Amino acid sequence: QVQLVESGGGLVQPGGSLRLSCAASGFTFSSYAMNWYRQATGKEREFVAAITRDGGRPRYADSVKGRFTISRDNPKNTVYLQMNSLKPEDTGVYYCNAWVEVEGRLNVYWGQGTQVTVSS
Q1: pLDDT, mean of residues 28-40
Q2: CB-based burial of residue 108 (10 Å sphere; 0-12 exposed, 13-18 middle, 19+ buried)?
Q3: DSSP string spanning 46-115?
Q4: Partner of 29 for a Cys bridge, out of 7, 47, 53, 77, CB 3.0 to 4.6 A?
Q5: What is the DSSP letter of 30?
Q6: CB-based contact 22:79 (threshold 8 Å)
Q7: pLDDT tens-place string over residues 90-110
Q8: In angstroms, rounded to a whole number, what is the distance separating the alpha carbons of residues 113 and 26?
Q9: Tell me, what DSSP letter sits at residue 27?
Q10: Burial level of 22, CB count in 10 A (0-12/13-18/19+)?
């Protein structure tokens, strides 16, 4: 059973930092790209960052480039999102995401999300 469990969210002041983690289980983690999305209240879920299965070629939304870093630890089945220079507009629920092949079909999986609030 595929599971994605996010952690590390919280309340932080503008300019501060947080590191989110997403622990994966139920599939061969090292075989799949991983993604982070976020959703602010009243807005659609949006892409934040992605990383290939070997950890190379990360991609970022323009709004977080230069401030956020996605990384992964394949032996630990975990993907991270280091968030620096946080802004109030970074507030939202952050979700881990993966497209995983199960029984010959490609399915999308989401974690339960972790709340990030940037406020003074």
Answers
A1: 97
A2: exposed
A3: EEEEEE-TTS-S-EE-TTTTTTEEEEEEGGGTEEEEEE-S--GGG-EEEEEEEEEEETTEEEEEE---EE
A4: 77
A5: G
A6: yes
A7: 999 999 999 999 889 999 999
A8: 18
A9: S
A10: buried
Residue 18 has pLDDT above 90, yes or no: yes
- What integer is the mean pLDDT of 66-94? 98
Q: Is 42 exposed, middle or buried (0-12, 13-18, 19+ CB in 10 A)?
A: exposed
The pLDDT of residue 102: 87
Does residue 23 register a pLDDT over 90? yes
Residues in the chain: 120
